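Shipment paperwork, digital attachment
Item: protein structure file
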Amino acid sequence: MIYSMTGYGKGSAEYDDRLITAEVKTVNHRFLEISSRLPKSLAGHEGEVEKIVRKRLKRGHVYVSISVDRGAENQSVAINMELLSNIYKELKAFAVREGIPGQIDMNTLLSFPDIIFSGEEEVKSSKLWAAAKKALNAALRECVQMRINEGEELAAGVNKRIDRLSRIVGRIEKKSPALKRKAFERAKLRVQRLLEGTAELDDGRWAVEVALMAEKSDVTEEIARLKSHLNQFRDVMKKGGEVSKKLTFLLQEIHREATTMGNKSVNGEIVKSCMEIKEEAEKIREQVQNFE
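Attachment content:
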């Protein structure tokens, strides 16, 4: 099975009157990188979140967000009177000492962190974390399923392009014998022109020189390697799993063979076909970058 690196999932769980919601979003990345955002009531569980994610995902940048909410009718707020008083005294003393004019108003005091806080009684972290894990696992299941679905769609598109590459290579292979004969005739004619007005070569030497010149434009080996790379590509796709790096390497080799073949050929149709191979390989590479 082939997985895309793009996915999203959302899960929820309840504990008492609290609703715990987990969201997981994944995007392309060379490795597995995890960024998590947890509420204060779950602070310290970042390491456990990462362990859970690593069991389900192998590659990509993963963004995890967990929130804990209570019903509005059950929520209450309180002011940290002691902290508010201390801040006011410190600011007033600082202003007097430094000779700074002005008044300290309530808006200024309330802008400091932790002045207003939830008046609810803190729940036991272990029970809250158990509910959070349930929500996180549900979000991961949904995210993984989305990565599977998108991976299947991408794989179908890639396989169609690989089939097209095979047809192009097959077209070149059919033309190869005739092109090889033409290359031999061109080489023979060239040698004849070079030898005009000079001592003639014996038949054996003549044949060797012509064969060497014709060999330089022969693309038989490149065709064989291209077919091998395409077969290997299909095998990797069938096996599934973490395929992106292997497929990227094979595409680089396909591109290299097409470049070599295009440079060796003097036939316009073959050169055009080699350009098509390279363009198609680049399009496939862009899709393969989304694979895990």
